[in-house]
Amino acid sequence: MSRRVTPTLLASALLLAGLVGCSTNAPEKENRPVAVEPSSAATPTPQVPAGSAPKNTFGVGVRQLKLNRDGRALPVTIWYPAAGKAGGAVKRSAAAADGRFPVVMFSHGLGGRPEDYAALLTRWAAAGFVVAAPAFPHTSQGGDGNILDVLNQPADVSYALTQVLALDGKTGDGLRGRLATDRVAAAGHSAGGVTTIGLFTASRDERLDAGVVFAGTAVGVGTAFAGASAPQLFVHGELDEVVDYAAGKEAYDKVPWPKAMLSLPKGDHGRALLGDAATLRVVSDTAVEFLRWTLYGDPEAKKRMATEATRDDIATFDDHL
């Protein structure tokens, strides 16, 4: 599923050089939001049958899947609901919990690794989602840092998604019969947010029912959102020192589908998300309710989103779901 990078995209991708991952030393920028009239939602409901999400939490297991797409090594870390008692340490290769669970593909930022986001992604797995996170060949930690390769990453995610979904029918695999293969979302941070937007624009993967974009921008992948309605949740710090808040807001404003934006007035590019317990709780719980609604079809989860988003006055919530 590789795609050709055009000269226009290459030129615009040069601007992506500012996506330097979760920098902890860069100065803060003044928030400059863009006043754009939000587009109307295409439909008020997710594209999956109505249902209810699990009310209980699960233990969490983790495993690795070694993939290669046309010479591009793509090791994938998979966190999933595990059998046994909830809470406690994540268990490597633990037995999967009973049930069928939606799949979320997560893309890391420049210079990052899937495990950098474990605090967030294990919460999603405990809530009843299988989260698969590839390490990209050029933009992960230890890669050559070629930011232009971000434009190839949507195809990497689509390839990895195909391989992950195939585990549901693979004899002897621990996830056999455990994946809701028709309920899939994509999520990502920073350069991974660009990757995620690309999966709904220039490299639209029609299997995706929803998207979650953390500190992302549409530079290089555009805002020509295509295909069936897929609700989107954007999360962005208003003091982001790497991807300006206005750039994320501009991409959000172009989404033609049901959407919401969680804005963090004191949030930066990633430190608050990954290091501050209160912010992590608000961001994670809001995203969980969004995924419960869009992937389980749970209408009660949609009603709870605004409450989770505005808890403790950590964030503001623009709701067009």
What is the number of helical segments per DSSP (H or I, 4+ residues)?
Answer: 8
Q: And the CATH topology?
A: Rossmann fold
| Percent helix | 25-40%
| Strand content bin | 15-25%
Report the uncertain regions: 1-18, 20-43
The H-level CATH homologous superfamily, spelled out, is Alpha/Beta hydrolase fold, catalytic domain
What is the count of β-strands? 10
Instruction: Tell me the overall shape.
Output: globular
Average residue pLDDT = 88
What Rg is obtained from the alpha carbons, in whole angstroms?
18 Å
Question: In which order are the strands of the major sheet placed?
Answer: 3-1-2-5-4-6-7-8-9-10
Describe the structure.
The chain is of the alpha/beta class and 321 residues long. It has a single domain (59-320), classed as Rossmann fold. It has helices at residues 7-13, 118-126, 153-166, 191-198, 245-254, 271-275, 277-296, 299-309, and strands at 59-69, 72-82, 91-92, 101-107, 130-134, 179-189, 208-214, 232-237, 259-264, 316-320. The protein has a 10-stranded mixed β-sheet, sandwiched between helices. The longest helix is centred in the C-terminal third of the chain and has 20 residues, at 277-296.
Topology:
Elements: H1 7-13, E1 59-69, E2 72-82, E3 91-92, E4 101-107, H2 118-126, E5 130-134, H3 153-166, E6 179-189, H4 191-198, E7 208-214, E8 232-237, H5 245-254, E9 259-264, H6 271-275, H7 277-296, H8 299-309, E10 316-320
Helix pairs in contact: 2-7, 7-8
